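DATA SHEET
Item: assembly model
Revision: 1
Owner: S.N.
Input lines:
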Amino acid sequence: MKVKIKSNDGHIQKLAEIVGGTRSILYNKEDLIAYDCDGFTLHNHLPKAVVFPNDTNEVAQIVKYCSENKLPFLARGAGTGLSGGAIPINGEVIISLVRMKRLISVDFENRRAVVEPGFVNLKLTNAISDKGYYYAPDPSSQYCCTIGGNVAENAGGAHCLKYGVTTNHILGLEVVLPNGDIIEIGKNGILDEPGYDLLGLLTGSEGTLGIVTKITVRILKNPEGKQTVLAYFDKVEEGSRAVSEIISSGIVPAALEMMDKVAIEGVEAAAFPVGHPKDIEAVLLIEVDGIAAGIDEQINQILEVCRKCHVRKVRAAKDEHEREQWWANRKTGFGAMGAISPDYLVQDGVIPRSTLPEVLERIKQISEESGLRIANIFHAGDGNLHPLVLFDARKQGEIEKALEAGSACLKVCADVGGTITGEHGVGIEKREEMRFVFNDEEIIAQTNIREVFNPHNLLNAGKLFPTPGRCVEIKKEIKDALLKS
Amino acid sequence: MSVTGTEFSESRPCQTRLGNYLWKELPDENKWADCVHCGMCLESCPTYEQTGQEQHSPRGRVYLIKAVAEGKLEVNEQFMDPVFACLDCRACTTACPADVDVGGLIEEARGQIRQAIPLKGWQGSLSKFFLHWLFPHPSRLQSLGGLLEFYQKSGLQKVVRKTKLIHVMPEHLVEMEGIMPEVKTSMRKKYKDQQVIKARGETKREVAMLTGCIMDVMFSDINESTINVLTRNGNDVRIPEGQTCCGALHVHAGDREMGRKLAKQNIQAFENFETVIVNAAGCGCMMKEYAQLFRNEQEWLERAEIFSNKVVDISKHLHETGYEKPKAELKTRITYHDACHLSHGQGVRIEPREILLDIPGVEMVHMPNADRCCGSAGIYNITNPEMAQAVLQSKMENVPEDVDMISMGNPGCMLQMAIGVQKYGRNQRIVHTVQLLDWAYQKESEVREG
C-alpha cells in the first residue's frame, strides 16, 4: 500500500507501507521525543521512528526490513521499565507493541491463557476474575505494564515470594527472531518440554534475543482465603528479625514487604496515604493466602512473631477495603517519591535476608556521603531491595551523584553475597555493575549466546552487558582467528 | 521565577522566558517536577487507549511540555497537536501516585500556544463568536435559545430533517442536532425580580446558585429541579445578578485572559454568599480552580481561594447538609456515569450514588469503568469529533443494556451520552441526579394530594 508521508527518508516510507498508514508510524521530532526514554529517565536518545504493528506478520516484516537494511531496532511495551531497556541509544527504530493487545484465548480447563505482548498485566486478572482465576506475577506497575515487557524483564512483584516470577508462569512463546523468522517455543503450552529450556532463556533476555509476539501464560485459581497484616517497628533490626523468623517458622507468605522511614514519608505525602506513623523505622506488610482453614492460625503465628520482635503496633486488615488501601499505598511507592523529590533513581539489589540491617546501615552511609536522601522499599521475603535515590536533575552534578550512589548500593549488595538486579533488569543502567558479579569470561560466554540469535547485534544493541575489557577482546580476536584458520 | 502578569500586554513576548516559552504566564515548573515518568497514568488516559502513543498520554504530554521549557522543542503546530488532543478529563490525576496536576499544566501550555499561534480564519471567528460574543452574555444566549426554540417549535426542525437539508452538516453536528434538548424558560429570567426563592418550611441556610451559561438555556429544567430540591431541604436560594459563564471553556481553549475576566466577575458576584451551588461538574471544577488563574495577582489569588472554598456541587451539598429521603417510589433501573470533572476533578463519587439509592424503587446497576470520559469534554466533541466518537464508543460498550436511565451530574456529558444512546440504538433516558430526586419529591406530593 502506498502511503503519503511527509519525509524524504526512504526507510520511513517503506516502514509506513508495512504498517499500513500514517497513523501507525511516528517520525517527527515532536512525537519522537516522548520515546527518548522509558521509566529510566537518565539516558535520552531519539529513535529513528516508532512503528505500531498490528500483528505478528507486520512485526516480522519490519524486523526483516531493518535487518536487511542494517537499521538498529528494538521492541517496546508500555515503557515502564526501570533500567532503560527500551531506550533507543543507537537511534533505533522502535517497534511499539501496544496495539497488539488482544486476549487471544483463555483455557480454564488447562489453566492457561494466550495473550499478545501489548496486553496489560492486570487486565488478564480482571478478565478472568469472575471465573475465580488470576494471573500471579504482579509487578507494582501492573496497572499499566504489558505482559510482553514482563517476559522481556522476567518481572517479579510483591506476590512472587510464594508464586514465583514471570518465568515460572510462561508456557509458550511466539517469537520473531532478529532475521525476521517466526518461531514458536513451548508449542503446546506444556511445561518442561524436552531439549534446552529456550523459554527460560528468552524470558528475561531483555529484548536482545528476539521479539515476543504471542505469549501462553499459566493462570491460577484464586486462593480460597487471604489475610494481610500491617506491623510497625521502631527499629529496622527488629523488623528485619521478624522477616527472618516468619520465614524460618515455616510459613510461606504470599507477600512480605518492608518500607523504611524515608519511603514511608514518600507514600504518606502522595496520593494514597494510609496514616503510617512518621517516627517508625520500618513498616512490614505481610500477606498469607491459601485454604481458608489454615489462614487464621498462620496470622496468629505472624502476630506472635512480630510481638516477640518488639513490634510497636501490629494488626490484621479489618476488611478487603482496608487491605486494598494498604496495597495501593505500597504499590504506588515508586511514583510516590515524586511527592517528596523531583527525580529518583530506583535500584534493584538482591541480598541474603539476614544481611538487611547491615546493608541498610551501609546504604545510610552512602546517603550521607553523597548528600542525597535514599528511601528503601524491600520485597523482604525474597531479599529484593529497592533503594530509591532521591535527587533533583536541575541541580548541577546531581544526576552523576545519584548514579554513583545507586551503583555504590549495588556494590554493597554484591559484597554481602547478593546480586545487582532482582526484577528490573540490567538494561543500560546496570551494564557496568554486571562486573560486580561476573568476570569478563563469564560475560563473553553470555554474549556468545546472544550471537546465536542476534548475530549482527541490530536488536537492542548495547544493553544488558558491559563492553568486555580490552584484554579479553584481544583474547577473543586471537581465538576467533585461530578457529577460522 | 517571578512574573507579574499585568505588566505585559497580550500577544507580545515577555522579557522573562522559560526555554522556548516566550509568552505571558509561563507554565509552572513545579508541576512537571512532580512527574517521575512512572507510567501509572497510561491506562487511565482515553487518548492513549485509542492511539497507544506516548505523546498522547499524560506522562508523554508532561514530557513534551517540559521539553519546550528545556529548549528541546518549540511551540509549534506539532507540539500543539498532543496538547490540544487531551480531553482534559483528569483521569490521570486520579491515577497518579505523585499527584501531578496534568490538567493544570495542559491548560497553561494551551495558554502559551494560543498566544504564540492565535486561531485564524473560520476557526478563529467561530471561537471568538462562542467564547467572547456568546457564552459570557446571558441575554445573547437567551436570544439564541429563543431562536432554537423557534427552530424546534415552528416546524422548521421537521422541515430541515425531512428535506434532508440536514445532510449538509458534518456528521457529528447532525448527531448533535438530533439530541438537542427542548428549550425551556431560563431560570434567571423566571426569577429575575425575585430576591430570594424561599425554602419550603423552615429556612436552615441560604445558598447562592450558579445558573450557568448554556445550562440555563438548554437545561433550564435541571436548574429548576436544583432549585426545587434545595428549597425542599431548607435552603433559601439566591441567583445573584452579576454572575456569568464560569470560563471553563475559555481556559480549556487556552484563552486564560478571558477566563480570568469571567472569574473576576463571578468572584465579585458571589462575594456576599457563603455557599455557591453548582450543578454542572465542569463549571464546579473550574470554579474550584480559579486560584490557578491568579498565580501572578496576589490580591485576586486570595479572593479566588476564598471563593473556591465556597463552591460545592449540588450532590455534595445535599449529602453534607442533609436531605429528606423521598417517600414515593420511582420504579426504575438506572446506572450512574461519573462525570470526569465531578469524580476526577472534585472527588465527588459516593454522594450522588447515595442520593440515588435513597430514592425508593431505584435499582442501581453497576457500570464498569464508570469514571471513564464519555468524550464530551466541554467542546472537545466539536473540535476533535473523531477522537470524541472513538471515546464515546468505548464508553457506550460499558453502559449496561438493561437499564431505563443513565444518571450523571454534568450537562456536557448528558448531550454526549444522548448522542451515544441514539447512535448505538439504545433506549436509555439521560437524566441529571437532581432531576430524579426532584421527580421523586414531586411524585410524593402528587400521592399526598391525590
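QC remark: Chain B touches chain A through 34 residues (CB under 8 Å).
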